[in-house]
Amino acid sequence: MPDVSVHAIVLRRRDLGESDRRVTLFTQERGRMEVVARGARKGNSRLGGASEPLTMSTMLLAEGPRNTYITQAEVQGSFPGIRADYDRLSFGLAYAELFEAVTVSSEDALELYEMLALGLGALSEHADPEVAFIWATVRLLELEGTLPSWLECVSTGVALKENPAWVSPMAGGYVSLGHEMPYPDKFSVTAETLIGLSKIGSLESPPPRMKNSEEAIKVLYAVWLEFAHKKLPAYRVLLDRTT
């Protein structure tokens, strides 16, 4: 087929052969894609920078018999605030990991692509990257149609009243007292954290601060594990920072 132009953000890269890279992209036009950047590891390669994680580029792609190849790439941005700070980079890689874990190839990916770019921008610039990460990941859950019920019991519809409260990712969120027993993955969370999670996802941008942000990170990790059905090592690094 002829070369196809895409707007792409690199989610992950792996070495391939002696000088190539296998690259996971999220594209505006086709959603998640696996492509090969030939010669990207050579010192003079024009694809070296464009195949680095968290880099935004316009690319030309060509489909071969077994792989899709990057034939040209022009870097449009690389979220410099993320690259200048280890904590921000950790959050950025964990955010990209979620997109790799839960998104698919699709011709209707504009909204997700914009959320990926918006989230990385917030992680690059916001005063508190932890708050930016929570906001961005809650918004992603909403776009994917998997946002838990934070304030109403998933079994009865009763409003949150306990503190602390039970949450079960398997059940889909808050479970009121007396209805938690069927869910082996249940764990206890402060009501204040659940209220904060319910509010932050409705905002157009991350708030300046969030109470109980460390607990919110842990709650969201359990939710994402249930949704992704796979390990999330980059996200796990975030938890290890606080233990």
What's this entry about, in short?
This protein is α+β, with helices and mostly antiparallel strands and 243 residues long.
Which key phrases capture this entry?
8 strands; 243 residues; de novo design (two linked rop proteins); 5-stranded antiparallel β-sheet; OB fold (Dihydrolipoamide Acetyltransferase, E2P); single chain; alpha+beta
What is the overall pLDDT average? 95
CATH architecture of the largest domain: Up-down Bundle
Say how many strands there are.
8
* Rounded Rg: 19 Å
pLDDT < 50 runs, ≥5 residues: none
| Class by alpha and beta content | alpha+beta
Helical percentage: 25-40%
CATH class category label of the largest domain: Mainly Alpha
Number of helices: 7
Taking the alpha carbons of the first and last residues, their distance comes to: 51 Å
CATH topology of the largest domain: de novo design (two linked rop proteins)
The order of strands across the largest sheet is 3-2-1-4-5
Number of domains: 2
Describe this entry's structure for a reader:
The strands form 2 sheets. Strands 3-2-1-4-5 form a 5-stranded antiparallel beta sheet. A 3-stranded antiparallel beta sheet has the order 7-6-8. The protein has helices spanning 80-83, 86-102, 110-125, 129-143, 191-200, 213-228, 233-240; strands spanning 4-16, 20-27, 31-37, 56-63, 68-77, 165-168, 173-175, 187-189. Strand 1 and strand 2 (20-27) form a beta hairpin. It has 7 helices and 8 strands. Helix content is 35%, strand content 23%. It folds into 2 domains: 4-77, OB fold (Dihydrolipoamide Acetyltransferase, E2P) (Beta Barrel); 80-240, Up-down Bundle (de novo design (two linked rop proteins)), CATH 1.20.1440.120. The model has no long low-confidence stretch (mean pLDDT 95). It is elongated and about 60 Å long. Helix 4 (129-143) runs parallel beside helix 6 and helix 6 (213-228) packs antiparallel against helix 7 (233-240).
